[in-house]
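Hi C.,

You asked whether I'd gotten around to modeling the 80-residue construct. I have! Everything is below, sequence then structure, no commentary in between.
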Amino acid sequence: MGDDGVGVRIAEELLRRKLPSDVQVVVGSVAGMALVGHLLESDRVVFADAIDAGAEPGAVFRSTRRRRSDSAALQHHATA
């Protein structure tokens, strides 16, 4: 599979499970800026995607919440 579709596969698996009613699974794929509303309205956000971070496959990275004023510092790989 490589990295193509790994996030979508994770979302599909989550959608098959019984999740708490306050959990929403959103398949972003290529949604880009359309995801901003979800980000601003959510208390917590989990991104599932593949990145080239020089780590072992399957490594998990955690980032702390950024203040909205810092949002300009975030870039998608397609815009970097």
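If it helps when you're writing up: The chain has one domain: 6-63.

Thanks,
B.
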